[in-house]
Design a protein that fits this description.
It is built from nine helices and ten strands. Helix 2 (49-62) packs parallel to helix 3 (76-85). The protein has helices at residues 19-29, 49-62, 76-85, 102-123, 140-147, 161-166, 171-178, 219-229, 247-261; strands at 5-11, 33-37, 66-71, 89-93, 126-130, 155-160, 182-187, 189-194, 205-210, 232-237. The chain has one domain (5-188, 215-261): Divalent-metal-dependent TIM barrel enzymes (TIM Barrel), CATH 3.20.20.150. The longest helix has 22 residues, at 102-123. Helices cover 40% and strands 22% of the residues. It is an alpha/beta fold. The strands form two sheets. An eight-stranded parallel barrel has the order 1-2-3-4-5-6-7-10, surrounded by five helices. Strands 8-9 form a two-stranded antiparallel ribbon.
């Protein structure tokens, strides 16, 4: 193995606290960076992003925490704020509307991304498209099909190990498929939980979000494959758990486990 030079970040969606408090909390958990939600109800919103994101960067830096990515809009004001704050990637998930076929849905998405490329080039920021189970760009081949025509400095892939596991993909084959455009790895874990009994006419299932040791995404295999390929970049633990009351305890367990694998 050639090894992997990775840095661990965390999606701060579960914690709606002031930025200074958030920075200290995240640093004490053992992360050196975050993915910051730029959404209503959080300290940085779509409305205040121009001023709020650079301010958040400064406050977090004093805590030893950087903003690695944001989850937010892809309008030019947000892109420019990312550039001013040194944030390289805006992560998005995209759905395929029910009234559209997969191919038509991706074609429409690409038309929008085509318009964004000159703006992304101007500001030196990328849109990172994440795979997601359900009626979305769900697996590695679909992800490559969607972003493969672009320079990854503009439109790149965010590979999510949990959704890869929910879709039943082999880790090595998924990474083989998307490797040329991969710039961020999401590390979380889940499994399909049956919610109906055997007497039901048709079985019903739902996603149950759990820790890295207990889901369908095999974290040791993920670490092995990334190290084998010499992955050098961020690994974002997304702190998503069905037991929302135990998030603080579970994310502490997961970052320790993740670090042990690398």
């Amino acid at each position: 193995m050639s090894g992997a030079k990775v840095r661990f970040t965390v999606f701060t969606k579960p914690w709606k606290m002031p930025i200074a408090e958030l920075g200290k909390f995240i640093h004490n958990l053992g992360f050196d960076g975050i993915e910051l939600p730029v959404r209503p109800g959080y300290p940085v919103t779509p409305e205040n992003v121009t001023k709020g994101l650079p301010e958040a960067k400064k406050i977090l830096a004093d805590c030893g925490v950087r903003i690695s990515t944001i989850a937010g809009g892809t309008d030019e004001r947000t892109i420019a704020a990312c550039a001013a704050s040194g944030v390289p990637i805006i992560r998005i998930c995209v759905e395929i509307p029910k009234e559209k076929t997969y191919l038509a849905g991706v074609s429409d998405l690409q038309k929008e991304w085509d318009k964004s490329v000159p703006i992304l080039e101007k500001h030196g920021v990328a849109i990172g498209v994440q795979n997601h189970c359900g009626r979305c760009i769900a697996n590695a081949m679909q992800l490559l099909h969607a972003v493969g025509k672009y320079n990854p400095k503009h439109i790149c892939a965010v590979w999510d190990a949990a959704h890869n596991g929910l879709e039943g993909e082999q880790v090595d084959l998924a990474l083989d498929t998307i490797w040329s455009h991969l710039r961020l790895v999401n590390l979380k874990s889940a499994y399909w939980k049956r919610t109906s009994g055997p007497e039901a006419p048709v079985a019903q299932w739902q996603v149950y979000w759990t820790t890295g040791r207990h889901g369908r995404s095999n974290w040791p295999s993920v670490a092995e494959e990334l190290k084998k390929r010499g992955y050098s970049g961020d690994i974002c633990l997304t702190a998503e758990y069905s037991d929302e009351h135990a998030v603080d305890r579970l994310i502490a367990e997961d970052i320790a486990y993740a670090k042990s694998l690398f």
